[in-house]
């Protein structure tokens, strides 16, 4: 289980660092041109939708971990395969569920 958490942490931290460095460079370039960094923040961006997306994703990941644990305990599937496959499966299903909800709301 420690290995799974370590791998997920590494693959989560690297994209986060890249995102933060890129955002810093964008804001620095805007300030050098004399523009406000508020241009990067969309005025119409709905925080409720974003919270809903991350909430559904967290629920999907939690279900994936739970099902992965069940598969690990009661089948002959290896620990790594059971956890990773279920985390990605239920995480993806959660994002598809959010997409479906967001599409219905726009209509």
TrEMBL record:
The keyword Transmembrane helix applies. The chain crosses the membrane at residues 6-22, 54-71, 83-102. Keywords: Membrane, Transmembrane, Transmembrane helix. Residues 5-102 form the DUF6249 domain. InterPro entries: DUF6249 (IPR046216). It comes from the Bacteria. This is DUF6249 domain-containing protein. The lineage of its organism: Bacteria, Pseudomonadati, Bacteroidota, Bacteroidia, Marinilabiliales.
């Amino acid at each position: 289980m420690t290995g799974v958490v370590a791998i997920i942490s590494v693959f989560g931290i690297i994209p986060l660092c890249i995102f933060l460095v890129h955002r810093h460079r964008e804001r620095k370039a805007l300030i050098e041109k004399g523009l406000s960094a508020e241009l990067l923040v969309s005025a119409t961006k709905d925080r409720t939708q974003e919270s809903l997306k991350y909430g559904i994703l967290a629920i999907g990941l939690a279900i994936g971990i739970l099902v992965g644990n069940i598969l690990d305990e009661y089948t002959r599937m290896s620990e790594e395969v059971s956890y990773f496959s279920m985390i990605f499966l239920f995480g993806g299903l959660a994002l598809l569920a959010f997409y479906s909800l967001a599409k219905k709301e726009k209509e």
